[in-house]
Amino acid sequence: xxxxxxxxxxxxxxxxxxxxIDDADAIGEAGSITCGDAxxxxxxxxxxxxxDAKFQxxxxxxxxxxxxxxxxxxxGKTLEEVKKITNKDIVDALGGLxxxxxxxxVMGHEALEDALKKIFKEEELQTAEKVIxxxxxxxxxxxxxxxxxxxxxxxxxxxxxxxAAGACGHCKNQIQNIINEILGSSTKVEEKKELTYTQKxxxxxxxxxxxxxxxxxxxxxxxxxxxYDGEKVxxxxxxxCSKCKNSILTLKNFVETTLKESFDDSIEVVNKTEExx
Length: 277
Fold this sequence. Notes:
Low-confidence stretches: 123-127
Radius of gyration: 21 Å
Structural class: alpha+beta
Mean pLDDT: 85
CATH topology of the largest domain: Sufe protein. Chain: A
Number of helices: 12
Oligomer: single chain
């Protein structure tokens, strides 16, 4: 659904250094399977140089590609050189990532930091950090670093890079305060006005027609908005999407995710076939 660089596609299809190192000198972890992405990074070190690196990841193609390129970037480098690597370096090495997938590069960087902290005996720094987003366990320091390194200016950009505020959204004000402090501004999060039922239906239909349907049509598929009952959005997948064995993934990972982000993070999307009407 997104435009990926040739490097990302190459490493997604043929990732390098997949697996584990049984006698690893350090293991770094980031993410959580319950949140959709998780990474474990294994490092082998000799005389202050990373001699080998492998990874195991649970996530999308961007997560696989980011983890793979990271291992290639750090093998053969000294620990001091490795400490200077940022998530922006990972993105640049991949030839870029879609905004919605920037958190994959951040996850790789966090796993690397986790491993380095264990090497340099700084585990206590992790426990002292303030958690801002409890849904995805994103700390204040992680948000500050993402904002500074990547010149982020909006909550949406922070969510793309860190996943913070990507679920319940209760931490949006805290994130905005962090952005304001770094940028020296005083922008306030706008209060959302409650929409009428008709306004909600119009908004859902607009999101489907302008954000979702065009992407599905690129691959010969399509989608039709059927109904909304206040909790569930009923749609009908059409074209190639209606016959695809992965239609449930399209429905949940793209259609529902897009509507959650642009409309209401509590809604559920249901595919309603003609036979069910």
